[in-house]
Amino acid sequence: xxxxxxxxxxxxxxxxxxxxxxxxxxxxxxxxxxxxxxxxxxxxxxxxxxxxxxxxxxxxxxxxxxxxxxxxxxxxxxxxxxxxxxxxxxxxxxxxxxxxxxxxxxxxxxxxxxxxxxxxxxxxxxxxxxxxxxxxxxxxxxxxxxxxxxxxxxxxxxxxxxxxxxxxxxxxxxxxxxxxxxxxxxxxxxxxxxxxxxxxxxxxxxxxxxxxxxxxxxxxxxxxxxxxxxxxxxxxxxxxxxxxxxxxxxxxxxxxxxxxxxxxxxxxxxxxxxxxxxxxxxxxxxxxxxxxxxxxxxxxxxxxxxxxxxxxxxxxxxxxxxxxxxxxxxxxxxxxxxxxxxxxxxxxxxxxxxxxxxxxxxxxxxxxxxxxxxxxxxxxxxxxxxxxxxxxxxxxxxxxxxxxxxxxxxxxxxxxxxxxxxxxxxxxxxxxxxxxxxxxxxxxxxxxxxxxxxxxxxxxxxxxxxxxxxxxxxxxxxxxxxxxxxxxxxxxxxxxxxxxxxxxxxxxxxxxxxxxxxxxxxxxxxxxxxxxxxxxxxxxxxxxxxxxxxxxxxxxxxxxxxxxxxxxxxxxxxxxxxxxxxxxxxxxxxxxxxxxxxxxxxxxxxxxxxxxxxxxxxxxxxxxxxxxxxxxxxxxxxxxxxxxxxxxxxxxxxxxxxxxxxxxxxxxxxxxxxxxxxxxxxxxxxxxxxxxxxxxxxxxxxxxxxxxxxxxxxxxxxxxxxxxxxxxxxxxxxxxxxxxxxxxxxxxxxxxxxxxxxxxx
Length: 761
Known about the structure:
The chain is of the alpha+beta class. It contains 16 helices and 45 strands.
């Protein structure tokens, strides 16, 4: 899993503690962003440090190589066989730095302290305390008092050492310019503070004297910070082992094998990186992205939920995330935003300015139930579903039953309502598709909990929305959907990718098959580029080629008017696969696969790429690690290429594998309910495809519909047949697909305990 970085380059890396802290840095340079360092609850505490051998610092420019792992980063230097390893302990505000070297003599650790909000600029005064008995250095800002409420933030930074040490005060401020932030002309400088050096001696008879460990902790009080730092010294190896074991369990749960080893490793990294963004600040939730979004965004959270949790069987985490947002739902029935979940939630601040986050929330409650069959939880959360739908019915519908919203209340929200750069009010195509999906989802949940009256009412509303979408959004000339309806009802025909969600978000047929074909064709022709899916067609006069071109426009103007958004590859891949265009889908996937290793922060996927690919150098932009980019990349593997789509509410499962050439064979487990399915798919040299689906004893009986798509070697990969069978716990179904003359033969049989013996489909 290691990503090696050579001496001529530097990569950003990010570690989190899965609670409220993260550490970001560079493998081979000083920090290039103000947002790098040790950050807890939206406040930075540590910029970095220098390790000294004698009076010579280990320079970032002297890094020989670096190795990034999901749990740590290790640098090796060109001098004195020096190396340092950095990791952030799970569940604690605790960073541990271990330095080793062949050098013998005086050495030192000099922290660069920078205590401030991540959006604050200034030069604060600091108070420093040295505890010689416990060998702990503590620092706080003089204007920060002890924490008094949950809305406050930690105060003290403490640094402990595992060796005899002395503190040498050498106070200084170091004005710093951050190259990547300077390019954005935002948060481009800061003034970190060095209180002095923690000095040690290397070179006595102790065989372990060639290394030293420094534990850096953040706490509400000086005693708390000191205690956590000392526990890091005492439990260093146990803490590292616990973090490594947790990440190893992630990979074991993934457990996939396939011909394309690069894809497997990219998926593994994506799983680790999106799991690292599952945090616990206001209850369990998902950070939208780092560095700009270390907080909870409703839309991002529930777009991410399938890939971050459901497809991997992280059902307990999914439940906790749903509960977190249900607890923050706007319950003020007189408020026009009644029923909405937050667009943005962070300590002390909650905003309800999104029209789609609530519908993703309802959709993903149903998807959770489809994976688990958890009726008890359905009953618990159903009041939130009812409040979401009835709040819109009361306050936000037009005469046709379409939901109304503001100009910047879609996911294309840059600039806000006061100055929207991509105004899309007051009925955007994906909002209506998601509203329709929420009504269908709500009806299904209502039936599951015995509320037949609401199920019928919401089903009838969904029928009306479907009719309105087909009538008011369909453009027969373009054979595509309008992007949105203006407040006067006139259609907007700008070519954007949003209509693809009208194909992928609904559970059933919002659109006819002909409409779906038209939508997928139009988006593929206008917005799907070789390097990703752009937010606006390149031939549009408003298209912005680059995210950053500040001499001509603010970057928010490009955000949804040209920038490539990596999360959009998820629905595009789903739509292409569903229409038999697997090769095109696979191209988008391989672009992301390679990006995990080759560009941007190591082992993750960013928010954006430039609308026009640069000829040389990195082409990434925006947040360096984005949850929905990662989650959609993972989801595509399970739901589209493997094609495993459970519905435990209905006691059924659809198996529709669509293997691209890079996946001519694949084996993978899939968690459903209280058990595990195991898939083994392979295509032989003669084009015969065999798909084995096994269930352990924890999987309930399922009626399986096998949708046979032509295998990778075939010219097209459209559906060529179907078969049905009963999968019993502890049994295996085998589906076969082979060419017979001008057609295909689909067959199925059950082994290891019975089931349906079928013949040709």
